[in-house]
User: Fold this.
Amino acid sequence: MAEHVDIQARFLETDLKPCLDAAVAGQGHVFFVDAAHFVFGTFLCCLWSFARIFVRAASGRQRFNVLGAWNAVTHELIAVTNTTAVNTETMCELLRKMAALGLTGPITLVLDNARYQRNAAVQALAEQLGITLLFLPSEVRPWDWTSTIVNNWPSRERPPMPKRRRRSFTPQFKAQVVLEVLTGVTSQAEVVRRNGLKPELVARWKAIALDRLETLFQGEAQSGQDQARVAELERMVGRLTMELEIAKKASALLPSVLSRGGRSS
Assistant:
């Protein structure tokens, strides 16, 4: 309807677009909030059988619920999930989770008019946490706006996706992690969770440590060989020094011997 189009246009220009412009400029954050519900059930397939088979399936009321806040600029999703229901408490949990992110600048959540979102408890908590709630006109659904705005936003104004910095680890840190795992002081799963590491990375470090463990003791044998070689060289130097001293004394005595031999002839 034309009336709805006018309402949407005014809302976009006066309420939503200023927040989006600020978010693009790095002066705030805009999140679109909505819920999705997934029903547990069986998958259809073909099965040849001589008898009719009945497959028990979960009832349609068993669901996996996701309440998400989608960042309009970075496309990051902040979500709260459960298997019960999405209600006011779920919305408050999402608000607390977003406040715990420690984002700099104002945070604006764009929501629809669902009762679990637009009520006194949610609004009071949002005000306490310093989060602005921007409710869409009743004629608008939030995810319709999300796809429309993001897909049509001018590319020159859309900031590049932030690149994740590749983490680097010192040899001392790797050794500490592997030592904790090998000694059994901490389980590998706990080490991975506490340090934010990937399980396959820790497994590779452990494999490298085990492969090179034998070389630690090879150094002792090599050290013994080096000491024997040094001793042999010292003996050679001593022998050469002695021979050199004998040669010097012989060369000093040789003229006098030759002179006496000449007189006697």
Observations:
- The mean pLDDT is 78.
